[in-house]
Amino acid sequence: MMPDRKMFWRILRRLLAANRGRLFVILLALGAGAAITAALLNLQVDARRRLTTEFRAFGANVVIAPSDSGTSAESPRFLNDSLFADLTEGMDSSNIPKAEFLYGVVDIARLPAATDQQPGASTKAILAGLEYSGSRPEQVLSPALVSVTRKAASGQILSCAVGPRAAAALQLHNGEILVLTSDSRELSCRASVLPSMGSEEDSQIFLDLRAAQTLLEQPGRISLIQLSVPGTPRQIQSCIDALRSLPGADVRPIRQFTEGEAKIYNRISGILSATVGLVLLLTALCVMAAMTNVAMERRNDVGLMKAIGGATRRVLRLFLAEAALLGLTGGILGAAIGILLSMWLGKAVFGVAARPRLIVYPVAVALTIIVAIAGAYPLRRLANIRPAAVFRGEA
Amino acid sequence: MFLRLVADSFSRRPRHKLLTGAALALGMAVATAALSVSLDVGDRLAREFRSLGANLLVTPKADSLPLEIGGVDYRPVNSGAYLPESDLGKLKTIFWRNNIVGFSPALETPVDAWTKSSQTYSTPAVDAHTILIGTWASHSVSVPDGSTYVTGIEKTNPWWQVEGRWFNDDAKECVAGKTFAARSGAKIGSPLNLNGGGKHLSLFVTGILSGGGPEDDSIVAPLRLAQELSGKQGQYRRLYVSALTKPEDEFGKRDPSTLAPADYERWYCTPYISSIALQIKQVLPGADVRVIRRVAEGEGAILTRVRTLLWLVTFASLLAAALAVGASSAASVIQRRTEIGLMKALGAASSTVGFLLVAEQLLLALVGGGLGYSFGILLARLVGQKIFGVAPAFSFLVLAVIVGLAAIVTLLGSAIPLRRAARYEPAPILRGE
Q1: Which of A375, B113, B149, B427 falls 20 to 30 Å from B313 in CA-CA distance?
Q2: Would you say the pTM of this structure is higher than 0.80?
Q3: Between residues A25 and B252, which one has the greater pLDDT?
Q4: Chain A: residue nearest B335 by CA?
Q5: Could you give the ipTM of this predicted complex?
């Protein structure tokens, strides 16, 4: 057995070394196939994750409101502002961006520039006390609102962000002083006018939550919490289920976004899977063509092997071993290139390099080996070769 | 003689030709499928994104400041301005009218509601103070050009789910929000009494609505009834428009008033959300059209990325198809060394031999590419049906690209072995070396 195996490897080495040009072509085909497969697989895994992050551009997808809330302005119900801490006890909530709101109706007026002037006309508006946390608050609030409140936080005087419609109603300009009145309590703040967002925020006034609680005389209370829960539709649902535990609070998904997202997510990942399947098919085809080529050229070799007593099975095993070895080499080289390629592609598409997934590498190599062996199918014809016919030079 | 040689080559080695042809057809089929799916996918996805609902909001320009929380206006009925309902048909006359997927007006009015018929209107026993949202469920709008267009809240808020059925716009029916139904005891098939603005109405509940927002705690009824209760006949306060748009690029973000006339024309004739907003403003006098930024921008960003991703993927599969086909046509040329040697020995010039082989390959490319195209269209239909439920539209572009690609790829694939074949010395080949 021992010299047999030695001979096996020796023949294999010779086979590989015999035609370097062709070896190179087959390796190139396998490598290219493996590279494209690995790149697409990696991109697919990464794109799914990246898409869920992209969806967060839509803003909050979960709200926590007081249960059986009539959110009517006349009979508001409230949540305790320590609620969220209770809710997420034992959960990793640090990466969930969150915003807390307290709503109330106030009279707003513009403070005249000179003291002897009459105060400007007043009108009723919705005041939203606002506090946010999480590393990326722009995933739950409009980016404009975040940047305005951020900038304002550094100033000396209390500042508020005014929606463009509210500002237009008072003819209020950036940097002017706005007076808010609720019952007999009064508060003035420096206004920054927000750009139009096309939603109800356009007619609201945003103020720091603590100041709003004092003004509306609702200490420690909030009306609404908005969350932007990251992840796939299933992860979002399980997070909602986990949050549902507390009585007095009603946790509900913003269906507009959760459902739309789930639908779109499924479509896109369906397309990606379909393309990966198609590309695998093509790689197999590529290798098959190269292997047919090999089979044709090897007729004489096989004829000789058989003539000097090589059993068909052993000859076949030899060629399969060759194919597997080629697949392994091509796969290892190609998949490495492919993963680098996918990082570059990820950068081109999503602006962030795709994170290389370790699982993709062995999968791509294994697929290439399978494809190489399956591609060796044309070699089966070698079994039918009759040595005598080959030596006579018959086709 | 030339044609005879070509015909002979096909008839003498049908199996070989079949194999190369099959490889070609399969490769081209995959390329066709990838190309037609990704050509189609942009439009499909844009349509999918409309499941996020309206991306444009129309409000009266001369309005007082709305007191809105969670999309419901809490202002008293007699404050603020309204827009005429009769103008709405004009929405389907704008330049991008076919991109308007749906629209629905809304008019809110506060009401007292109770379910038991025994109670008198003046003393409702159950305190079920709520908001009645008047809108269209499925309403035929007459368009000025004489046609009618059916639209409503189902198009602009597709995530609103109704257990039971939507109300009929001409009947005295309504759907009750989930939370409201739970607290007032309203049930499907039972009457609901309303008292608002000094008027009384008795409506038939046809469904329970669950939308996940404040609408869950209100009643949704035909716009006509809300107008009747609030005394604002033929008017509405808000209009939601859902439009198919092109993601705004650098050009689309520019201020249209600063554009040169030619650029303005181009901007106006591109379905950017802002140009559609302007066109709506032009047909609805007194209206202020605002882009719902969150929806529009999120959609734009994701759509752009997915499109880029799919083009990259398509390009990769085209590349793989080209490699596969190129390799198989290279194989088919190499196999014919002896034949080439014989031809040369009989006095054929290298160019004649090359020409013959190229003609054969092209014929193969045409047949294989054509077969592959028809097979690929079937594949694309299958994939499209599975993913979007709709088969992609037929496109001549794909056919042209595929046949062209097949020809180029087979020629390129044969080019290297052909060049080598041109250098063959007949004698060693014929000796079998």
Answers
A1: A375
A2: no
A3: B252
A4: A296
A5: 0.70
